[in-house]
């Protein structure tokens, strides 16, 4: 029997929707196109099947998300993942946090960084560059927005160039989007 | 063509941040396409274009972004949907149970998404919001929050950038 997960973890749970996902068998051509269903790609997740209720948004969001998180140059992948984690901690999206914490660990082998964040959340103490990245992402994710010019200045002082700084704004912000879907339309279970 | 994010942040094209914008032109273009997909979709379901604009303006006001709120108010005016106009105000209600429930949900999605539970979705269903419309509403709120944070973050980078 699987139970909802309420604590931060780097072990990726299953996501269970609160609304009935679209069924592949009855999906419209527009929904199938937005889900990128092809003869060789029929394994569509419950999350994507849920978002297929709004195919126009899904169609645009998927490539935007991939470009922001996996586009070339700019902020190193691990730090984009840390930006995603910063936003997801603020919004308490257990599922997004698990996925992107595990990616951060996979890229850096730095389990200690994630352990600190899970233990102390926004009060986590990290080395200077990671601290600047994590804090800026978290402080851009609150309502009202807490990030200040001082936080932005710290990014430059930590060695982030203009493109890296832009990439951090984008990776934190796209999780302001992803968390509001993942955490509010369903729940993580394990 | 200049995208909304570029207009609202006013970054000089020949600055380091302006050059970074050029490197991420496709992100800006897709962000603009996402704006159109949630504000003026071809099939908006149970969320009219006017309701979408009113809720977007309301969410911008929660974050105190007057310029972005004004952008959505112009969409609301263009829709000429007077019945939903009150929802553009932070505490506004329009008297329609379904639309008022959607406005309350948009408030929660903007201010405290971490508090969201299964009960919030149940409340929407009780108020007569369809499952597809629940997803449409979530995408609208999620996009507007993305855009608000991109604009706010870029303004901070702009303000501290070394010319």
- Separation of termini of chain A? 9 Å
Distance between the termini of chain B: 24 Å
**CATH fold name of the domain at 74-180 in chain A:** AhpD-like
How many strands appear in the DSSP assignment of chain A? Answer: 2
Question: Which percent range describes the beta-strand content of chain A?
Answer: under 5%
Task: Decide which structural class fits the backbone of chain B.
Answer: mainly alpha
Instruction: Name the CATH architecture of chain B.
Output: Up-down Bundle
Shape of chain A: globular
Strand order of the largest sheet of chain A: 1-2
Low-pLDDT residue intervals, each spanning 5 or more residues of chain B: none
Residue windows where pLDDT falls under 50 for at least 5 positions of chain A: none
Report on the structure:
- The complex is a heterodimer of chains A (190) and B (163).
- Chain A has helices at residues 29-34, 46-51, 55-70, 77-90, 94-108, 111-120, 128-141, 149-157, 162-182; strands at 14-17, 186-189.
- Chain A has 190 residues and is mostly helical.
- Chain A has a domain at 74-180: AhpD-like.
- Chain A has a two-stranded antiparallel sheet with strand order 1-2.
- Chain A is globular.
- With 163 residues, chain B is mainly α.
- Chain B has one domain (15-156): AhpD-like, CATH 1.20.1290.10.
- Chain B has eight helices and no strands.
- Chain B has helices at residues 4-9, 16-23, 25-39, 49-62, 66-79, 97-111, 118-126, 131-160.
- Chain B is elongated.
- The chains are: A mainly alpha (190), B mainly alpha (163).
- At the A-B interface, helix 3, helix 7, helix 8 and helix 9 of A face helix 2, helix 3, helix 6, helix 7 and helix 8 of B.
